[in-house]
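Kindly inspect this chain:
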Amino acid sequence: MDHSGLLPRLVAEGFNGPIWCTGPTADLLGVMLPTARRIQEQDAERRNRRADRADEPPIVPDLYER
């Protein structure tokens, strides 16, 4: 994930060029990126439920937003 985890943000910010990787890496990304998104969403939900955050704006997962 350390080399490919920000690919969604790169694309969300307008990159539309080729992304080069090996076949096995492409296979892994098909599993890793959706899993990373799900974990980020769950973390944000959990943090937003905390009572000490009641007066703060909600945390929005931003890896895939922009």
